[in-house]
Amino acid sequence: MEDIFGALAIGLSTIFTAKVLVWTMVGIVSGMFFGLVPGLSGLTGMGLLLPFAIGQPPEVAFSFLLGMYAVTTQTDAIPAVLLGIPGTSAAQATYLDGYPMAKRGEAGRALSASYFASIVGTIVFSVIFLVLLPVIRPVINSFGSPEFFMLAMMGLVMSGSLVGPNIARGLMVAAAGLLISCIGVAGATGDYRYTLGWSYLEDGLPLVPVALGLFAVPEVMELMASRTSIARDFAVKGGALEGLRDTIRHRWLVVRCSVIGGVCGVVPGLGGSAAEWLGYSHAVQSARDSSQFGKGDIRGVLAAESATTAQKPGAIIPTVALGIPGNASMAVMLGVFLIVGLRPGSAMLNEQLPLTFQMLWTVILANIVVALICLVLQRHIVKLCQVRASVIAPLIITFMAIGATFASNSYNDLIAFAVFGALGLFMKAYDWPRVPLLIGMVLGQLAEANFFISVQVYGASWLWQRPIVLATLGLTLAFLAAMVLRGRRDRAMRAQQAGGGNA
Amino acid sequence: MRQKIFAALAMASAFAIPNVAAAQEADFSGKTVRIVQNFAAGGSTDLFARTLAPFVAKYLPGEPTVVVEPRPGAAGIQAATYMHNSSRPDGLEICLCNSIPTRWVTLKDFELDVRDFGIAGSQPVNTVVLIRNDLGVEVPADLADTPKPLLFSAPSPADLNGNRFNVFAEMFGARSRIIGGFGAAGNNLQSVLTGETTITSLNGDYYAVQQDSVEEAGTVHAFGQVGIPGPDGFVRDASIDAPTFDELIREYKPDALDTPQYKLFSAFNQAAAVQFIYLLAPGTPEAYVQAWETALSKAVADPEYAAAVEQMEATVRPFSDTAETREKLEALHDGFKAPEVVEILMELAPAYFK
């Protein structure tokens, strides 16, 4: 235990040495940029900044890249909340409630809540990190394809809470999302599905142009038609203290979502999008009154941000301890190990433990620094919501178009963006829920791939022989039952109100 | 008559233009050239391209600025299609196209002929196959009698490494099955470490860094490696403690060397030998192709590049020039398209014919 505290102290002191601190700050500033610009992400940043880590000692290389990686999910909330541009897959759930809040002049409150939730998410996960450290291998090894499948199914069931009042429409849209997730080469069989002979579709539809089209296009069109500003007639407030108060008020929600996000990070293959949607769905599911979600409920922002931020340090664990990258960015981190001449494994939890803790401290420091920077600048940043539509809308459209094509440099992304933009306009105009489509896409891929692997490897026995599968199935059924009961209760209440009104 | 002469002159001049271009010196002074790579930013292909780029810049005539541009999509085919259909033949863009030669010979509907591009060279990719210890496989013959089925985890049933292993196992009377769908980073390795599957493969460079943690797990070992192509066949990468598959066949099944299975196995190895191929737009003047070929070969031979690669605990991959690469592509094409090989391939890797 003393060794652990000693390593924690050495790790902490290392990040405050001059060279490490300077490089961490450079990483943080770069990360802010990669988060702010729609279409860029932590993964892009990792790829682009990796050459600068060559030749650096390990403590500098890791601090530099992790400083960048840690903060992209904090600053990506800014375009999502202020301008309605969910430019990364990690900002999509944040957008759902953040942007409606910005329209009400509460952008500052939403953003500061997202920063505080990020900080809590990181710190909560750091505690989990310490607890998991001795048992990390059995924890990770207890998750296989059947467990992934059941988690995806639980997420899909939980997302049932997001379908809105018209359940039939919501289910149809979610089914469409599942179908869209089937586009491309089927992992299990190698069959080409729904590609229309177009090579662009062979890898499936990329999430960023779809989300930008689906959510941002209708908003910008509405903004242009309104000829006002994003915040309309509302006074725009800084809202830093309100955000802090919201975080404290909903502290247990933030902690629970941080745990969900952290677990999604630790278990390789679940990823940031799944973490965010699982966290968000949990918030909706567990709320007594979920009627305001999607219309500007601060709990939506807190849940999404805490889950996404906790997922990031979570993904470091399997990479460092077991050499198994938890997500694509962590696969690049393996490259950093190559560059600095280290190898992941038990050495990182023994003789190199101070370096492992230094990585964790870097993520915490980066989150706090960015939160402070953003809070200081917030009063000025939120004024973007007051800029006239004629000025801001063309800028938003330009950013969206750039963001849609950043990952693949392909004009085809613009086509996908335009098609889903038109679909988003239609869905918004006719009051069809858009969120289930995206969740169907995100979780559908996860569910399908892992279902086929489970069946191929275990036949049907995985359904009753694995305790985590059974436990997740039990939870899923409990959520389902709760949803049905809540639906009945709401219907009864509406009937009672209608009856009372008639009387 | 005057019109005919004019037309003949016009045609002659049209044909003469490429020759003039071919004869001119390639000069990239003050220009920005792009290395397009065909997978996502941050992946192993991207890392490879970014490590190499500054050294290529040093040896291209005029020392231009070299930038790396990811152009992922369609399992890497998007970038090749872009280079074929949209890139200008001016030598300012080159594609480091990972796995395109394999797709060329194995995909039913692959519309491009790799030989049509301006080819500036190629480099191999080594692969290590990991097998679970509880299968009790010490020598290849053990593959035929294992207590658990041979399940190879891979991103897709069309995976090059999985199918190469299938052909190898077949030569020893064993049958392995590819379990596709392990798409996310690290899932292949995790599946074999947890025992969900029993075999998988890792890129040689990445295995170098993951070696310790894999050994610590104590559940899997490196069974074999593809190796590095040399003048006398594939040789071991010394940093990986495992024989090459070719060695294993020669030692334990020499009578298989004349079979169609071995021909197919060799064709898979040829695919690995040219896995990183450098392609310029079709019709790029020869002077530019040569300039790239020279710059790439000098960059790979640069001691500073070797030091950078060594620092990553990786091995400098040998560079094959244009002529060698074209030779290997022909061997690859002949190997995969021979009727007796196609017959085996249809049985072992039906995913290629979908």
Any descriptors?
A: mainly alpha, two-stranded antiparallel sheet, 2 strands, 74% helix, globular, B: alpha/beta, D-Maltodextrin-Binding Protein, domain 2, 2 domains, five-stranded mixed beta sheet, 17% strand
Walkthrough of the structure:
The complex is a heterodimer of chains A (503) and B (354). Chain A is mostly helical and 503 residues long. Helices cover 74% and strands 1% of the residues of chain A. In chain A, strands 1-2 form a two-stranded antiparallel ribbon. In chain A, strand 1 (184-185) and strand 2 (192-193) form a beta hairpin. In chain A, helix 5 (77-83) packs antiparallel against helix 7 (107-132) and helix 6 runs antiparallel to helix 7 (107-132). The model of chain A has no long low-confidence stretch (mean pLDDT 82). In chain B, helix 9 (260-273) runs antiparallel to helix 12 (322-337) and helix 9 (260-273) packs across helix 13 (339-348). The model of chain B is unreliable at 1-23 (pLDDT under 50). The N and C termini of chain B lie far apart (56 Å). Chain B contains 13 helices and 12 strands. In chain B, strands 2-1-3-12-4 form a 5-stranded mixed β-sheet, with helices on both faces. In chain B, strands 7-6-8-5-9 form a 5-stranded mixed β-sheet, with helices on both faces. Helix content of chain B is 45%, strand content 17%. The longest helix of chain B is centred in the first third of the chain and has 22 residues, at 2-23. At the A-B interface, helix 3, helix 8, helix 15, helix 16 and helix 20 of A face helix 2, helix 3, helix 6 and helix 7 of B.
